[in-house]
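dumping this here before i forget
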Amino acid sequence: MKLRFAAGVVTLAVMTGQALPVVAAQAKPESKSVLPFIEDDYAKALAVATASKKPIFVDVWAPW
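structure:
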């Protein structure tokens, strides 16, 4: 039903020479929260994770 209505509006606008209103896409606002990393302090990371009941994410890399 919505598709038929939209097609009818477009057809009517073309026939009468009217401009169609432009509807801007509504973008979701970007999240500004930052994931806090605790560098080189496993005891602190473990304490924070235990207190907040969240898992620990360990980022490991090597320059090989």
